[in-house]
Amino acid sequence: MRTLHLLRADGEGFVPPSTNDFNLPPVFGNNEYTTKPILLVFLSVILISVFFILASRKAAIVPSKLQFAGESIYGFVRNDLARDNIGHEFMRFVPYLFTLFTFILTNNIFGIVPLLQFPAMSHVSFPYVLAIFTFITFHYIGIRKQGVVKYFKDIMFMPGVPKAAYILLTPLELATFFIVRPLTLSLRLFANMFAGHLLLLVFILGGDHLLKGVIGLKLISPFAFAFGIGLTFFEFMVQCLQAYIFTLLTALYIAGALADEH
Amino acid sequence: MKQEENAAWSIFGYLLSGLLFWGGAGWALDHWLNTRYFLLGGLLLGTGASIYVIWLRFGRQ
């Protein structure tokens, strides 16, 4: 309580970061389509395109550093995510998985790039749209590959189960495939980015506020900043991991839709 | 193939949908009938059903 009083006595109290910090005003005039997240998404598309065009333009047998970097990312998505999970038909899905991975990764990492410092995926609509793409993709592939009737039959009625158990299992399977999968896919990405950004705001804004307090609080402030820096590195890990998981799950869902029997 | 390793991620989805669907059904019954034990029953049933599905999909070979 005492520290609280000291803080208050200094001027206006500390305003903890909240969801309001995520509703950024438009950058240009009153145009709602020019908020920071939207501009960052466009920037990410430009950066990804430029990077990979430059990396692949002068392809040589002995790769340059740029070409090597581009090829490692591509090779990672193609081999570790697509080929190992989907199997022999994987090449068709590499473009989608690769786009997904680089897009999410770049936008996540914007969360800790100085000056940009905002992960667009902390606005839930962006992960929703990506999850809808994945949702449509894997259902469409499953229906194309197996036909509507067989595809739905495979989801709803597993072979080798007593008939009475279907009352219990069929709604569960339907809920998994049509509600839980897209929902968890998008919410996992959203919640991680949202919470991570909020965490960084708490430590860095808190450290800044402590610095304006009395001498005792000034001494504590470096610890808050140190934690902020440590958490920034932790965030980097989370951001890479979330991009990886989103792409991995998309690959797994596609693999599941392609499989003849579950 | 790495598919088996990565099954963990799908298993999470099944557990969640079991709890959500049958737990939700139990909650709705409680709400309409003014009782208070269907929610618990639904959650247990849902967990059991998800574990059964997980065993069917990933456990038996």
UniProtKB/TrEMBL annotation, chain A:
Record GO terms (molecular function): proton-transporting ATP synthase activity, rotational mechanism
InterPro entries reported in the protein's UniProt record: ATP_synth_F0_asu (IPR000568), ATP_synth_F0_asu_AS (IPR023011), ATP_synth_F0_asu_bact/mt (IPR045083), F0_ATP_A_sf (IPR035908)
Membrane topology: Multi-pass membrane protein
Keyword Transmembrane: yes
Keywords on record: ATP synthesis, CF(0), Hydrogen ion transport, Ion transport, Membrane, Transmembrane, Transmembrane helix, Transport
Record's keyword annotation contains Membrane: yes
Gene Ontology cellular component annotations, sorted alphabetically: proton-transporting ATP synthase complex
Membrane spanning residue stretches: 38-55, 93-113, 125-143, 164-183, 189-207, 219-237, 243-259
Localization annotation: Membrane
Family affiliation: Belongs to the ATPase A chain family.
The protein's name: Unannotated protein
Automatic annotation (TrEMBL), chain B:
The UniProt record lists the keyword Transmembrane: yes
Organism: freshwater metagenome
UniProt keyword Transmembrane, yes or no: yes
Protein keywords: Membrane, Transmembrane, Transmembrane helix
Official protein name in the record: Unannotated protein
Entry's transmembrane regions: 7-25, 37-58
